[in-house]
Each structure stands twice: as structure tokens, then as C-alpha cells.
Amino acid sequence: MADPLICRVHPSHVLDVWPHVVDHIVKSLRYGWGECEAEDFLDRLLLGKWRLWVVLEGQQIVASATIELVNYPRARAVRVITLGGSRSKRWLKFLLTELKKLAAETGSVAIEGVGRPGWTRALKSLGFEESARHVLLRIDNGQ
Question: Which residues on adjacent β-strands are paired with residue 9?
Fold first, then answer.
């Protein structure tokens, strides 16, 4: 079987690909706290604020990632917002290669993301380290 192909989706083509990736995004959102819905992702992808990448095996989209560039006061990072699909052991290292290229193109010094513990284990073998734990306190402001 040929290596998976990692493709950056231009904002003008997001609607063409959306039906094939929306389930990946929705599944990722189950681990969030309601801060975004799939429609919010679509809006930002269409505007080019966030980026959509897909993983192809043959003609089939088997995974997708949503990405943003984050400008901190002293550094820039590539942030993976969502990452999902099937057969990640086949494509994860190829995606990382492309993310490193994006980091070099944009002057980013890190690739970061927040995810469930399973992703921490999967990414460790690719050189990632757990740098912090994400904590959350929900505030009810009468809404």
C-alpha cells in the first residue's frame, strides 16, 4: 500500500471536503467543554483563520486535522485544534512531517495541542512531551 498523502485544503475547497471531515471534528468536540461547535470550525476554515488538512489513502479521506497559528509574545506555534480519523498508526508520522514543514514555513518554533491521554501516549514516540495539564472550572453566570 502506498504512503498516505497529507493535503492542505484551501479555504475555497473547504465546503467540498466538509462532509468527509465533519464527523472527525464532532468526535473531537466531545472532549471539549462546549467552547466550539462544528459550525464555528466551518466559519473559521472558510475565512482562512484556521486551516484544514486531510489524510488520504487512495481516494479516501481517512483523517483530518484543524490547525491554527498562534502568536505568543515571544514565539509562534502551530496548534493542532482537532485531529481525528482512523488508522492513525499509518499516517501520524507523515502528518508530523508536514506539520514540521508548516512550522518552518511560518517561523513557528513548536507544534502544540490539547488532547485526551491517548494522544499523549501516541505522540510520545514521535518526540512530543507532555508539557502541562489542561484544567477547567466551569462558571455558571446565570446563563
Answer: 52
Give the strand pairing for 60-71 and 51-57: antiparallel
Q: Are 94 and 55 in contact (CB under 8 A)?
A: yes
3 state DSSP class of 71: strand
Helix (H) or strand (E) holding 87: none
Question: Residue ranges per domain, the chain?
Answer: 5-124
DSSP code of residue 49: S
Is residue 119 predicted with pLDDT exceeding 80? no
**Would the pTM count as exceeding 0.70?**
yes
5-124 is classed in which CATH architecture?
Answer: 3-Layer(aba) Sandwich (3.40)
Q: What is the per-residue pLDDT across 23-48, written as a single tens digit (0 to 9) for each?
A: 999 999 998 888 999 999 999 999 99
Q: CB within 8 A of 24, min separation 6: which ones? A: 63, 64, 82, 83, 84, 85
Q: Return the closest-CA partner of residue 100 out of 118, 77, 131, 71.
A: 77
How far apart, in whole angstroms, are the C-alpha atoms of residue 123 and residue 142?
39
